[in-house]
Amino acid sequence: MAADLILTNATVYTVDASRPWVSSLAVAGGKIVALDDAPRGPSTEVLDLGGAFVMPGLVDVHNHHAMAGRADLFELTFGADAGLEDILGAVRARAASLGPDEWLTGGAWASTLVETLSSTAARRALDRAAGGRPVSLADDSRHNRWVSSRALELAGITAATPDPPGGEIVRDGDEPSGLLLEAAGVLVERVTGGLTPGQHRRASRRAIEILHGFGVTAFQDAGVSTDILGALKSLDDAGELDAWVVSSLLVNDPIFGFDPVGAPLLEVAGQYRTEHHRPDFVKIFLDGVPPTRTAAFLEPYLPDDVHGACHHGSTTMAPSELTDWLLKAAAAGFSAKVHCTGDASVRQFLDAVSEVRAAGYDRTLFQVAHGQFVHPDDLPRFAALGVAADISPFLWVPGVIPSAIAAVLPAARAARMQPNRALLDTGALVAGGSDWPVSESPNAWEGIAGLVSRRDPHGRRPGALWPEQAISLAEAIEAFTLGGARACGLADVTGALTPGRSADFVVLDRDPFRTGDLAGTSVVETWFGGRRVFSRL
Prior knowledge:
alpha/beta; eight-stranded parallel beta sheet; six-stranded mixed beta sheet; 29% helix; globular
């Protein structure tokens, strides 16, 4: 078969161990058909890349693309470096363009501001900045909300309102402060008002445009609603979904306020399947996040006045309930991504997977999502049980969230985050994810640079975070390509440049193996299915 397209005079890194380097590749019918020895025909387009570096399109194993697209199009956004006065100024400016009782939503404030925002004085300052409007602002983990008095009123939250299961209404004395942790934020999310189907479609499309600019051609959304599923199906039905997408169906929902979740969502998932969209995973939140002491640990947090000296956090499900859900999902043909940020939740999940494997489900894919903290005894269990490590977001370097974690855990434990080297050395499949918009950008090269150095790739924060856990550049690139594809079940179509796979590749502005500035790497072109979907030229 003659090729439709041939790339020549290129430095092609295939991420295929049997043939890692070639100088040309041929594409026909949207797939790679040959490497180096390319069959030409009279209509073959030949592109001389002048030695440019080419590699597979990136695979982001954990993001919230629709949330990121929504934020970009419809919400107030500010960085995690914003202080209280910066946030109030941004709210004030945004509120000036809104109607008198129109919702103002957005984020993301830094986890280090939890104490600052836990007062009625801070909430009243927010009220003044917003002109009395309802406001809901997410934190950098997207698990917690800071809201205004009007938002509390619309959600029916008063001094008498009890904490919901799995959440906390942080109080200043007896009065709600405006800070809502985990499931308490859902009380407000349910009254903020949703997007129209057209807006959901725009949000997904905008997010994928942004992802293309960073070279991402496949991703797993880590928690979807039927609205998001519908948007993805609508895009693919119209021939406009230029990415491989795996969706994770929520079994429980402590933070988003989606409906339906659980069994009713799993029952309808099949109707949203398309050529490029695979709703193949369930998602379970097994704990919260360390900065708010909602992650589940084997050893206690540092003492504080609210939780005392023996607080470990807790999981959202009993071990038997988790195992039952994983068995039900596997029986229905679903794989599972499970949110675990503490080492106790990781252990409980691995124990449950052991039972599922013993029941005969050998091919079901399992992912520990995040897994910043893993007890040393549990490291070899990832490979033994066939559990992938979804390492996300980019918390393997000094930064805002690691600083917030260091404030609640003993120093020796806080300094031992993201054991990526140890996971690889024990045979685990490691897959890279951005958790965008938890990470402010889905730029995998920032994450890759940090994986290799364990230092802030932009030099904003000094030092290194557990430098012994650094990995090689080749390992880091594989985590964000073939590793991600294997973890989310897309290795049959993407993740490496080999004949038969989709022609998903990127052209970079530099050879990452020959640069001193990995984080500065940028994408010149992104191709999906043999079509150019992004160009910086």
